[in-house]
Amino acid sequence: MNKTIRHIITGTASVMLAVAMILAFTAGVSSRRTILCKDIEINIVDSLQNSFVTKDDIKSFIDKEYGIYIGQPVDSIDLVRIEDIVDGRSAVRKSEAYVTKDGIIHIDVTQRKPVVRFQKKDGGFYADSEGYIFPLQRNYASHVQVIDGYIPLAANSGYKGAIEDPEEMEWFTRMMNVVNHMEKSRTWKDKIVQISVDKGGDIILVPREGNELFVFGQPVEVAEKFRKMEKYYTHILPAKGEGHYKRVDLRFKGQIVCR
After folding, report:
1. Domain covering 39-111, topology
2. Is 118:151 a contact under the CB 8 Å cutoff?
3. Which has the least CB within 10 A, 61, 107, 157, 184?
4. pLDDT 10s digits, 13-27
């Protein structure tokens, strides 16, 4: 076989292979386009931790804002738009939508995890560990620490978004140090039932039992102030008895001032 014929055969084979690949790809795309959406399945990833949204809630949001998807070709369904609709819910942190070969839309939903609830005169709101604020939910109340009183955050009960002011974020971070210290200690988590902020910005801790109010002061030197509270319970209270003191001031360095 001469060289020219060999080149012709090789070239023809390459062309035929390319045509076969194009036909196979086209057939695959065509086959995919014939797959119609049969149903939608929603998975609330962290449903055991919080119940801010339900599967029915998510489906209702999509039905209302997206429109018809059942019976539509799966390639025509805008999954990014579906994710945007779900992520627009204040209690949703992130969603992921995808379609499987059987024509089912799957949506995995992760909810926001509140670490504290702030209660102001004009209403309350949650905040997660990153300082993202979102409204209270009508169908579920998360069992987290409540901080009330003169909250130095501009957000109101309808606000949704991150804390943007640097000073507000600094205060929030310090308050989270107090809350996290309590959460890590079974003693303080059970013993302290209320945190209030007075007009001057001082924190007041209210115990579950007893009449004492603990004046914590500014949310700084957190570990040291809780050590003072521990000394009060282990030394001062047993010596003086229940009800002797009404106010225990922890603000002064190296001192516990009881009145």
Report:
1. Ubiquitin-like (UB roll) (3.10.20)
2. yes
3. 184
4. 554 555 445 555 454
Instruction: Please name the residue that has the structure tokens 């076969």.
Output: 20
Q: Which two tokens stand for residue 220?
A: 């700084």
pLDDT tens for 171-197 read 999 999 999 999 998 889 889 999 999
Domain 114-258 falls under CATH 2.60.40.1640:
no
| Token code pair at residue 208 | 């579950």
Q: In what order do the strands lie in the sheet with 92-99?
A: 39-44, 104-111, 92-99
Q: Is 9 left (phi over 0), alpha (psi -120 to 50) or beta?
A: alpha
pTM: 0.78
Cβ atoms < 10 Å from Cβ of 217: 17
Domain spans in the chain, listed from the N-terminal domain onward: 39-111, 114-258
Residue indicated by tokens 């700084």: 220
Q: Pairing relation of β-strands 161-162 and 145-149?
A: unpaired
Task: Label residue 2 by pLDDT band (50, 70, 90).
Answer: low
